[in-house]
């Protein structure tokens, strides 16, 4: 870079950017289009960089440059790209054709060259894209997005070019995409190409199937040939030093266990007694690298561990002191930062750890010694992170190990995790449970402010050892360390819930209720904390902000406890069924029993039914209006346990208890679990018969006529939406709407008022109504649905009056019936929008015209432009006239399947063309039957 750093442009040119990038970008490691060009590389530096890499150090950009030069001069073979290289490059080039943010996935088992392959791709494409690596995924995502956009526009907007960004943390991808899009919209940048292509490089232990690139610890014949050729070249250049190129040799021998055992044979002579410090340090590095790939220690930490004056005077080096283990350990210095030390390869680290355990130096001994000897004074944050990962991070379970035991859902639980970290599981398997507890206790005391170690210890005590008193003590200790974190508070509730679940069969009602009281109080406190977690000021849990998700574990745990209490007490005496459902007073029951000591639990028993009713209503809305993510549904046990608890406490109450007409109707609705708007909507997609629907509709109509309730009227209208329920006398109702009304009422108003024809004038200000619905949503549900995907509930179809309102389940049924042999996983049904490619689905829906501009979508209705949400934000990059289908979530109207209008019909953006929707299917499809008419009062 003799003339300064240069970036590639979209037209395959280069532009010099001076200090514009170097001074403004700190979170991205940019590889410039002219990296190292015109520079004289010190041969000693080049030689050391090469040896370090082949020994096992992470690659540097200089490694690729050296290899490129050697190939150009005919002095070396090409840098080895594993078989996934060509596929990866093709996938990236393909994404460049579409103006959006896209993600290309590279999965790899540890030590298989995944990061090297990703960096090689970035290097080779540096003159096509603006290549960069995200160096710190824990940074503020907004700052990362700002730097990405700055890199995209660097050198003036006329020289924009797509950024190819390597990201090692898949958890941040969605938030990063959203933040980049917001920055583009804020700066009003006109986009003609993708802003960024994210190359997601993620370690996976389990072998994955599918189209994505996945590197495994096995070479193909082609790869074996390439490695053999490279081996000959390295021996010509470095001679016998190649015997210590363990990083390269492990791959060249096709990950041979024989080679690894031979390389680590020095550990076979370890003695348990009087272990020298160099052996201890080798054990620490092995344990860390075996269980936390990518971990390291600083060279200064290693030298401090020996505490020799000789180091200060330069008489000894770390390499000398670590003999006879030096050939297994590498020291490297990334980007001028402090020198780092690690084992040469994760497989070597695993083998060394195993050999030491066989010699009597157990994993638990090494872990305790590491905590005692290395974690002293001011512990560097990176080491705290490595230790936390090693002792508390839970891997996803292999698919064949799935069990029914699940934590309550949240986005962080995309895959069911194992109960404990890999190290704790290995210690448990090979050394016993008490050693696990000992290691976790040592960490808890060493990191005396961190809540996650006592949390893990409490979990181990109640899950594995069934020591509930100790589990309670450590769960409380964890809570004291972070009193505002609801996820930490959850552990205390789980301790009491599991104690109650495993209570002795001869436990008395008093013992049952004592334990239930503790569990209920813990879960209610957790619920209170969750409500106060607003998402921006929460502490981080590792690399993820726990407040990104609303914690529902407290409410769900409460319902699980209620179920346990119900069955345990009813097994003692059937009358408890009536007491818990408040059909029999506790006083009269205890008087008949002759046991008044249980009066101390009066408040608890008296509150259960109403609390169950409230929490079940919450989960009705939670599961009906939203789902875990665009691609994943909530586990079925949540709705099953919730429904079971509702039936036990609320639904099975006898109707004779309710004397008044309105109360009688409400209880009928409760018995059928259709007493809320969400429940009515939920029942529409269930296995309800025509007579069931008719009965529910009748009850809601009677309740409206009896109480003149707006909510009852809204639920009556929602109930009659299925066509088979619309056979009734014509009647006109008025649906009043005020700003503070629920999102459900706003949604119903929008459905009823949306014009059948895009040229029709609106009877109400739709933009104002949409804004009111969003405000109502924010007030009612935003805190609970934060990170979740909002389900589309209804769509605007072809037809008149209520016939044009199409329930989403109708479309799903059409699509499933047409694709029974091809649909494998229906959980991502709305994220890929394939459903809208089905001709029969298209025939049911009204096509709405609109426009995309400044990363927003607008509907053209009655000559007015109305802003909408988009189901796929990635479809909003390009300014254009569009078609789409209109769906409604509980937050408001959403544009689905956005498509560009045919080119010959596109007009200027100042005069958007009004394309008439196809109304051929708008005739009355109910055979002339009369419908209820609904008027909306402004």
A few lines on this structure:
This protein has 938 residues and is α/β, with parallel strands linked by helices. Helices cover 46% and strands 12% of the residues. The protein has 36 helices and 24 strands.
Structure, explained:
- The protein is α/β, with parallel strands linked by helices and 938 residues long.
- The chain is 46% helix and 12% strand.
- The protein contains 36 helices and 24 strands.
- The chain has a 6-stranded mixed sheet, sandwiched between helices.
- Strand 22 and strand 23 form a beta hairpin.
- Helix 10 (277-291) crosses helix 14 (346-358) and helix 26 (602-625) packs across helix 27 (636-651).
- It is flat and about 95 Å long.
- Taking Cα atoms only, what radius of gyration do you get, to the nearest Å? 32 Å
Strand content: 5-15%
Main beta-sheet strand count, sense and barrel state: 6 strands, mixed
Number of helices, counting only DSSP H or I runs of 4 residues or more: 36
Tell me, what's the shape?
Answer: flat
Helix/strand structural class = alpha/beta
Low-confidence stretches: 400-414, 536-546, 655-659, 723-731, 904-932
Helix content: 40-55%
């Amino acid at each position: 870079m003799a003339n300064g750093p240069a970036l590639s442009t979209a037209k395959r040119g280069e532009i010099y950017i001076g200090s514009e990038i170097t001074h403004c970008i700190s979170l991205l490691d940019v590889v410039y289009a002219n990296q190292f060009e015109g520079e004289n590389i010190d041969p000693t530096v080049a030689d050391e960089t090469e040896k370090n890499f082949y020994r096992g150090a992470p690659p540097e950009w200089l490694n690729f440059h050296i290899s490129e030069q050697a190939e150009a001069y005919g002095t070396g073979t090409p840098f080895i790209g594993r078989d996934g290289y060509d596929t990866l490059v093709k996938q990236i080039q393909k994404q460049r054709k579409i103006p959006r943010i896209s993600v290309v996935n590279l999965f790899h088992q540890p030590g298989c060259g995944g990061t090297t392959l990703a960096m090689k791709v970035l290097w080779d494409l540096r003159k096509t894209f603006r290549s960069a690596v995200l160096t710190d995924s824990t940074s503020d995502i907004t700052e990362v997005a700002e730097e990405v956009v700055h890199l995209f526009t660097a050198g003036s907007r006329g020289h924009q070019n797509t950024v190819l960004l390597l990201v090692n943390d898949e958890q941040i991808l969605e938030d990063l995409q959203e933040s980049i899009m917001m920055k583009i919209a804020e700066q009003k940048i006109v986009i003609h190409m993708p802003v960024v292509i994210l190359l997601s490089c993620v370690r996976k232990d389990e072998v994955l199937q599918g189209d994505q690139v996945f590197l495994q610890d096995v070479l193909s014949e082609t790869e074996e040939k390439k490695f053999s050729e490279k081996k000959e070249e390295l021996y010509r250049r470095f001679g016998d030093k190649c015997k210590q190129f363990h990083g390269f040799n492990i791959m060249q021998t096709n990950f041979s266990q024989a080679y690894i055992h031979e390389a680590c044979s020095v550990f076979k002579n370890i003695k348990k007694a009087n272990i020298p410090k160099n052996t201890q340090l080798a054990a620490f590095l092995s344990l860390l690298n075996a269980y936390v790939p990518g971990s390291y220690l600083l060279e200064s930490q290693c030298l401090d561990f020996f505490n020799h004056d000789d180091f200060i005077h330069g008489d000894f080096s770390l390499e000398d002191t670590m003999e006879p283990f030096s050939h297994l350990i590498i020291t490297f210095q990334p980007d001028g930062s402090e020198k780092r030390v690690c084992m040469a390869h994760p497989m070597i680290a695993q083998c060394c750890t195993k050999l030491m355990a066989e010699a009597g130096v157990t994993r638990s001994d090494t872990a305790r010694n590491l905590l005692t000897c290395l974690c002293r004074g001011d512990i560097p944050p990176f080491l705290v992170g490595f230790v936390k990962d090693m002792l508390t991070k839970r891997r996803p379970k292999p698919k064949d190990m799935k069990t029914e035991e699940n934590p309550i859902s949240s986005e962080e639980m995309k895959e069911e995790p194992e109960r404990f970290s890999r190290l704790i599981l290995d210690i448990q398997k090979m050394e016993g449970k008490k050693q696990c507890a000992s290691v976790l206790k040592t960490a808890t005391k060493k990191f005396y402010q961190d809540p996650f170690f006592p949390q893990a210890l409490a979990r181990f005590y109640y899950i594995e050892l069934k020591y509930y008193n100790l589990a309670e003590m450590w769960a409380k200790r964890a809570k004291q360390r972070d009193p505002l974190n609801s996820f930490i508070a959850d552990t205390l509730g789980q301790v009491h819930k599991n104690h109650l679940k495993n209570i002795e069969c001869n436990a008395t009602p008093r013992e049952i209720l004592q334990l239930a009281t503790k569990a209920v109080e813990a879960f209610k406190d957790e619920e209170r904390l969750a409500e106060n977690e607003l998402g921006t000021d929460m502490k981080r849990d590792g690399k993820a902000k726990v407040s990104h998700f609303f914690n529902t574990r407290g409410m769900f745990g409460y319902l699980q406890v209620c179920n346990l209490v119900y069955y345990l007490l009813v097994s003692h005496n059937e009358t408890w069924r009536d007491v818990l459902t408040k059909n029999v007073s506790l006083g009269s029951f205890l008087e008949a029993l002759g046991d008044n000591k249980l009066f101390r639990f009066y408040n608890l028993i008296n509150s259960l039914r109403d609390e169950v009713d409230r929490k079940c209503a919450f989960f009705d809305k939670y599961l009906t209006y939203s789902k875990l993510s665009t691609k994943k549904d909530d586990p079925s046990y949540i709705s099953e346990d919730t429904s079971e608890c509702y039936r036990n406490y609320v639904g099975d109450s006898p109707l004779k208890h309710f004397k008044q007409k309105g109360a009688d109707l409400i209880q009928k609705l409760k018995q059928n679990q259709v007493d809320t708007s969400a429940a009515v909507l939920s029942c529409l997609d269930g296995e309800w018969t025509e007579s069931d629907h008719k009965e529910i509709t009748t009850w809601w109509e009677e309740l409206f006529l009896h109480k003149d309730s707006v909510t009852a009227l809204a639920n009556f209208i929602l109930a009659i939406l299925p066509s088979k329920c619309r056979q009734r006398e014509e009647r006109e109702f008025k649906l009043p709407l005020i700003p503070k009304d629920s999102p459900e009422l706003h949604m119903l108003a929008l459905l009823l008022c949306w014009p059948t024809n895009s040229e029709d004038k609106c009877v109400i200000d739709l933009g104002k109504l949409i804004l009111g619905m969003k405000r109502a949503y924010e007030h009612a549900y935003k805190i609970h649905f934060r990170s979740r995907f909002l389900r589309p509930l209804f769509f605007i179809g072809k037809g008149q009056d209520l016939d044009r309102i199409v329930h989403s389940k109708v479309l799903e049924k059409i699509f499933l019936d047409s694709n029974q042999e091809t649909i494998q996983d229906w959980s991502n049904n709305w994220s890929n929008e394939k459903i809208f490619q089905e001709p029969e689905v298209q025939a049911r829906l009204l096509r709405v015209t609109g426009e995309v501009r400044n990363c927003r979508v607008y509907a053209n209705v009655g000559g007015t432009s109305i802003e909408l949400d988009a189901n796929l934000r990635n479809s909003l990059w390009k300014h254009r006239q569009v078609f789409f289908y209109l769906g409604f979530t509980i937050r408001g109207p959403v544009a689905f399947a956005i498509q560009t209008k045919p080119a010959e019909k596109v007009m200027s953006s100042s005069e958007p063309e009004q394309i008439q929707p196809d109304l051929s299917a708008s005739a009355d499809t109910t055979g002339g039957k009369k419908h209820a008419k609904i008027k909306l009062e402004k």
